[in-house]
Amino acid sequence: MINVTIENFDAEVVAASHQVAVLVDFWAPWCGPCKVIGPLLEKLELDYAGRFKLVKIDSDQEQELAQAFGIRSIPTCVLLMGGKPVDGFMGAVTESQLKAFLDKHLPSEDALTAEEEALDAQALAAAGDPQAALDKLHHVLSANPANDDARYDYVKLLIENNYLDDAQAALAPALAAIPRQIRFEALEQFLDAIRFVNSDARAHWEMAQFDSLIATNKRDFDTRLAKARVLLVRGEWTAAMDELLEIVMRDKAWNGGVARKTFVAILELLTPAKPATDPLAGGKTAGGIEIAGKGVAVLDPQAQLVSTYRRKLSMALN
Which of 59, 92, 200, 293 could be stapled to 36 by a disulfide with Cβ–Cβ 3.0 to 4.6 Å? Predict the structure, then answer.
């Protein structure tokens, strides 16, 4: 439990809520019901073992914060997640009611364990131990087959380590889901490209051989697609997209729209993971408190590349 003032509000509440749910307890020393609910909240913070963070705000001393949250009576509790209020309640409630309130929003212990194991897997993969990473992700999926984030990481890592049949099997449940997620369709296109390179003689061609045929017939889409798939597997992303774009501009629907689908797959594979939102970027805290200065959004080069090629595809399709 932390006592919060306007000076540490952004760090202890807004920024912290991007990492863990923060329950804000507005109270005052003279408030009788506050003395009832306060100890219960502190007990539950310990019982929930890091699943949420409890902070207390003295509404008499921190009237600006109380006004920003529209506090009309105390005790009032507000739950923040991702920098924004998501729920709250007023008055003293029982321990069982508090648990019901928290359980409605907080991840379960199993979900937190799975998330930690998935992060461990990413670290293992980055450290050059893909097999250990695959073992962890397999364990996460076995415990919870509905964990789409773990499934995506697992399939992608299987593909990158050439376990193609295992990747196809692990991908199948996601492809059967309705609606399909774009990121899983992207992995399917990636698999198709690798299988093409592993089975088609053109995978061994020099780029000049592709270019010679394309120069003779600009609408030789089969050769263009073959070239794009070779480039994709080599990791020459922009060259692959440029070739696919030539197909899309000439015939959007060719071969079931495979050029567009492959292009979108590359964009999805290239899209950087979303960073935690900067709670100060908008010039206000989650409670609407004005702060000095505004953050400047800066796209990294890969994000800029993805944005540029999204626009190119949009123009080609319109």
Answer: 92
Question: What confidence score (pLDDT) does residue 284 get?
Answer: 40
The span from the CA of 177 to the CA of 146, in Å, is 11
Catalytic residue among 21, 22, 31, 68: 31
pTM confidence score: 0.64
CATH 3.40.30.10 domain locations along the chain: 2-108
Annotation marks residue 31 as catalytic: yes
Summarised one tens digit per residue, pLDDT across range 219-251 is 999 999 999 999 999 999 999 999 999 999 999
Domain 109-180 = CATH 2.60.40: no
Supply the CATH classification number for the domain 2-108: 3.40.30.10
Q: What is the C-alpha to C-alpha distance for residues 149 and 141, in angstroms, rounded to an integer?
A: 10
Distance of CA 235 to the CA centre of its chain: 23
Provide the pairing of β-strand 76-81 with 21-27: antiparallel
For the chain, the helix, strand and coil percentages under 3-state DSSP, each to the nearest 5:
60, 10, 30
**φ/ψ of residue 163, rounded to 5:** -90, 70
Q: How many CB atoms lie within 10 A of CB 129?
A: 14
Rounded CA separation 84/61 (Å): 23
The active-site residue, picked from 4, 23, 24, 34, is 34
